[in-house]
Amino acid sequence: MAGFKLLSLLLTLVLVGCSGGGSPEALTGYIEAEYVYISALETGWITASAVREGDRVSPGQVLLTLDSERQTLELNEATQRAVQAQAQNRDLRSGARPEELTRLDAQLAEAKSALRLAAIELRRLRGLRSKGAVSEAALDKADAEYRASKARVESATAAISVAKLPARQEAVLAAKAAAEAASAVQAKAQWRLDQRQLTARQAGLVTAVYYRQGEQLPAGSPALALLPDDGLKVRFFVPQSRAVEFSPGTAVGIRQDGSADTIRATVSYLAEQVEFTPPVIYSVANREKLVFMVEARLPAHSQLHAGQPVDVELL
Length: 315
Hints:
By secondary structure, the protein is α+β, with helices and mostly antiparallel strands. It contains five helices and 15 strands. Residues 1-21 form the signal peptide. InterPro entries: MdtA-like_HH (IPR058624), UPF0194_transport (IPR050465). Residues 101-165 form the Multidrug resistance protein MdtA-like alpha-helical hairpin domain.
């Protein structure tokens, strides 16, 4: 009886040693996931959670929402400052206001009227002076008044021309820069408000939710983990004698236990340095102690799971 048990044990060991997990060329590997962790730039209270573990999400889908009262107030303030800066910029470019121009036009009309009266008085006194009816001093006074009235007309005309001009070039450039800076601050405030909604950047599967509605999410802490549709890869180790067969771009076949289907994958990484065989994959069929780590990218929706052992072979 003891001899029969010993024979059975030896037979089992032989079968295990010969199986090698599939075909003689098959290598042992395991599935690894590259998760995307969704976090917030600023801390906040979660006001709404839109997904749970196991939900599939699409790009742009809202995952959760944070409170946004402070960001809304900052946006309102930035908007008002931008409106103010833009108005000042337009004001400097447009010159005086219509009311100011109206006042200057009235002053010009008054100066022209005074000039006409001074011209009439000057001509009258010149006629009288030729007849000796007035003194030379009176004529000089009338001439001085005419010249003063003419200067007031020229001054009023120049004031209107200046009022219609924009501000100095330096002041205009400064106002323009202030308006652009205010608009940038407004855009930044809008962006911060938009960040209070965390959205998916790519399609995938929600694998873990760490914070839920009513909890405070610290800045930079993952709120949930997302596995992209193309986020799975297979990692395996090849003997150094076969490393040249698995250069990046090489197609390999992946088989999982209990399935006869072969999933096609593409080698994406071959380690630069050799290492010792990890004990977890050491077997009778793989006695070489120096191996290279290889990673192959799996296609989207491959229906495999992280940590799952698989067989890998060249196609």
